[in-house]
Design goal:
By secondary structure, this protein is α/β, with parallel strands linked by helices. It is 39% helix and 17% strand. Strand 7, helix 5 and strand 8 form a beta-alpha-beta unit.
Length: 330
């Protein structure tokens, strides 16, 4: 052993204690980078439980307002709302009803937690009886008719006080139509968070259970992106920025870290990533069986998403993460 050369460079010196490791850590994540999704039900008789998403519930409007207060107290800066209407129909009228579940929830949350950033999902799938994100004509999605309704939806949500509207239907031209409609209605300060690179993913299953939004026929592959295409993702992001998006998003997150990294390198705009329901449920299921330590896995995955380049992360684990960090600070 005495004759072996000693290493001159010793990276382990900077790993010796927790304090030293923290001092040289390249990527940090705090609760102020996270957005908590909330499911809000219009009918109080709707079952609040979501079996595939332990710890997440369908909230009444009053419950959503109370939850928003608690999230704000934990240091979480934003929520995104998904409405669960009492009734569905072919054109998803509940999505753009000024007294619908999301506008009413926005008003209640803004009253309860005025400084919380309220984002609202702009889509039709939760509101249509066929479960698709747009208008169905002759068994196909009518893109331009869908865009008109999406613009109406965004206006109704912005009128209620939403800070950001988040079009997620993946219809061509939806961002431009929404920007024009908002500006026309004197809502020019409302920002747009575009689901720019939303992939046709198998990770959305628990969300579809929560929102009762499984398509009644076919699937969403004619409008959501092919998971195999990276260059197409960058093209979609570029188009949404050209159309007026203020923030662009990649969804899902973990299986698309390469897309997040490529988008970060290509574009200077704020970049969001959505750690979706399937990612949440997989971690929860493994943790319940004792196969992984939930906190460690969540912190590692959120760090990976930030390291890839996301500025903000939508995650169902936001509240848990904030509690854990709050516990550390005593």
């Amino acid at each position: 052993m005495a004759d072996l050369p000693r290493p001159r460079v010793r990276p382990r010196r900077l790993r010796r204690t927790a304090a030293i490791r923290a001092l040289v850590r390249e990527t940090s994540v705090d609760a102020d980078r996270l957005v908590q999704p909330l499911f809000v039900r219009e009918d109080s008789r709707t079952d609040p439980a979501i079996p595939s998403m332990p710890g997440i519930s369908r909230l009444t409007i009053d419950e959503a307002a109370s939850e928003a207060e608690e999230l704000a107290a934990l240091g979480i800066p934003a929520v995104i709302l998904f409405g669960l209407p009492a009734e569905k129909d072919p054109l998803g009228h509940g999505a753009y009803d000024d007294r619908g579940v999301v506008p009413e929830a926005v008003r209640a949350i803004k009253s309860a937690a005025p400084d919380l950033v309220v984002m609202s999902d702009v889509c039709l799938c939760q509101y249509t009886d066929h479960g698709h994100c747009g208008v169905v004509r002759d068994g196909r999605i009518d893109n331009d008719a869908s865009v008109e309704l999406l613009a109406k939806t965004a206006v109704s949500q912005a009128r209620a006080g939403a800070d950001l509207v988040a079009p997620s239907a993946m219809m061509d031209g939806q961002v431009a139509a929404i920007r024009a409609a908002l500006d026309r209605e004197g809502l020019g300060e409302t920002a747009i968070l575009a689901y720019a690179a939303k992939h046709a993913s198998a990770f959305y299953g628990p969300f579809r259970e929560a929102a009762d939004s499984v398509p009644r026929f076919s699937d969403r592959r004619t409008y959501q992106k092919d998971p195999a295409n990276l260059r197409e993702s960058l093209r979609e992001i570029a188009l949404d920025l050209e159309e007026g998006a203020d923030i662009v998003m990649v969804k899902p997150a973990l299986a698309y870290l390469d897309v997040i990294r490529a988008a970060r390198e290509r574009f200077d705009a704020p970049l969001a990533a959505y750690s979706v329901s399937g990612e949440y449920s997989l971690i929860k299921a493994a943790a319940e069986r004792g196969w992984v330590d939930e906190r460690s896995v969540v912190e590692e995955t959120i760090t990976a998403i930030r390291r890839a380049g996301a500025d903000l992360i939508l995650t169902y684990h936001a509240k848990d993460f904030a509690r854990w960090r709050r516990g550390e600070r005593g």
